[in-house]
Specification:
Elements (H helix, E strand, L loop, with lengths): L1 H10 L11 H6 L2 H5 L4 H9 L1 H17 L3 E4 L14 E5 L4 E5 L23 H6 L8
Parallel strand pairs: 1-2
Antiparallel strand pairs: 2-3
């Protein structure tokens, strides 16, 4: 009997939880109710700008109803909400739009965190060999 319960638990897919709530429960919440589950800085941001977040959700829904595959946006400081999970965005990084699909693990983060604005410096051995040390100062 105990072995059967263990096997049943192993067979079930591990549910992803955000502060003890599943994605379905989170999607039913209002923007302000979800804000109560966030960290203090994110909570403050959402509660002060909840109209902006709600407007964005409405525009997102309208564009997805029109049949748009991905939604382009310049808004990098928007907190990712549960209703955005599974939606494809193109976030502007100052030079180009970078594609991004929202996943459960991104909840509570800002959109801008997933589109870097600076490119990594690429150094090669050839560059280092080409540069010579400056002559010593006298």
């Amino acid at each position: 009997m105990v072995e059967e319960n263990i096997n049943d638990m192993q067979m079930k897919k591990k549910e992803q939880l955000f502060r003890g709530k599943t994605l379905e429960e989170l999607q039913k919440l209002d923007v302000r109710e979800f804000a109560k589950l966030l960290s203090s800085n994110s909570k403050r941001n959402v509660l002060r700008n909840f109209q902006e977040h709600e407007k964005f959700l409405i525009r997102m829904k309208e564009k997805s109803d029109k049949g748009k595959r991905s939604i382009k946006t310049h808004i990098r400081d928007l907190i990712i909400l549960p209703k955005m999970v599974g939606v494809k965005f193109q976030i502007y990084n100052g030079r180009e739009f970078l594609p991004l699909e929202i996943t459960f693990n991104m909840l509570g983060h800002k959109l801008g965190e997933f589109s870097p604005t600076r490119a990594k410096a690429k150094h090669s051995k050839e560059e280092k060999k080409g540069k010579k040390k400056a002559p010593p100062k006298k």
